[in-house]
Design a protein that fits this description.
Length: about 190
C-alpha cells in the first residue's frame, strides 16, 4: 500500500468506528423511548447515518441490542478497574449498573431470549466477574451481607428491570430505579 492508501484506510476505519459508536448511542436512546421494536430507520436517522451503514454494522435489532449491552458491560468493567482498591467500589458499580438499566430500558425484551442467547449470557457473566472483588471487599468491611453471592446480581438486575419496566418517561424511570435501589441496599447491608 502506498502512504496515501494507508492514510485513507485509517480514516475509513476511524469513520467506521465513529459511525458504530453513533449508531449504538442512537439505538440506546431510541430503544429507551420506543422499545426494542422501534424502527431501525429511526435509529439510523438519530445517528445521522444511512440504513446501509446501520445494517453493515448490525444485521438486525438483536445484534444492535447485544452491542449496547456490550458497551454497558465494558463501562462496568472500566469502573471496576478504576475503583479496584476503594471501599465504595460495590456501591459505585451497583449505581452504574442501575443507571445502564435506566438508559437501556427498552432492551429488556432481548433478555427474554434466556439460554437461546449465549452472547447475552456471556455478558452477564462478565458483569458478575466485575463485581466479584467489590462484593468480597464490602463483605469483609461489614457493608454487605455475608450470604450475598455474585449470581445474586442477576436477580438484582431483574428486580430493578421489573420496577422500571412499566415506566415510560426516563426521568420517572430514574426516580423509580433510585427508590428500588435504596430499598435493595437496605436488604443488602451486612
Amino acid at each position: 500500500m502506498t502512504p496515501v492508501e494507508i492514510a485513507e484506510s485509517h480514516t475509513l476505519r476511524r469513520d467506521a468506528r465513529r459511525n458504530r459508536a453513533l449508531i449504538i448511542e442512537a439505538a440506546r436512546e431510541v430503544f429507551a423511548s420506543a422499545g426494542l421494536g422501534a424502527p431501525l430507520d429511526a435509529v439510523a436517522r438519530r445517528a445521522g447515518v444511512g440504513r446501509g451503514t446501520l445494517y453493515r454494522h448490525f444485521p438486525d435489532r438483536y445484534a444492535l441490542a447485544v452491542a449496547i449491552f456490550e458497551d454497558n458491560v465494558r463501562d462496568i468493567e472500566r469502573l471496576a478497574a478504576d475503583y479496584e482498591d476503594r471501599a465504595d467500589a460495590f456501591d459505585a458499580l451497583l449505581r452504574a449498573l442501575v443507571d445502564h438499566q435506566v438508559r437501556s430500558h427498552g432492551l429488556h425484551q432481548a433478555l427474554d431470549k434466556g439460554t437461546e442467547a449465549p452472547e447475552l449470557q456471556a455478558l452477564a457473566e462478565r458483569i458478575v466477574l466485575a463485581f466479584g472483588e467489590p462484593i468480597r471487599r464490602a463483605q469483609e468491611d461489614g457493608a454487605l451481607r455475608a450470604d450475598l453471592v455474585r449470581d445474586d446480581l442477576l436477580d438484582i438486575m431483574r428486580m430493578v428491570a421489573s420496577v422500571i419496566g412499566r415506566v415510560d418517561d426516563i426521568d420517572r424511570r430514574r426516580v423509580s430505579a433510585d427508590r428500588a435501589l435504596d430499598l435493595l441496599r437496605d436488604g443488602l447491608r451486612g
